[in-house]
TrEMBL record:
Originating species: Neobacillus vireti LMG 21834
InterPro entries for this protein: DltX
Keywords of the record: Membrane, Transmembrane, Transmembrane helix
Transmembrane segments: 20-36
Stated name of the protein: D-Ala-teichoic acid biosynthesis protein
Organism domain of life: Bacteria
Amino acid sequence: MFERFKDFMTNQKLKWLGRFVYYLLILLLLFFMYGFNDASAGSYIYNDF
């Protein structure tokens, strides 16, 4: 049983898929946090200088 779990966790395709999903979730989270605004929708950091 432990050997099957060990083989499952060392599978390269599974590692690649896990990293892909992890970084995709981070990217989607950043999009939703900062929104899909156009340039005139919000205040830009350099407008006050």
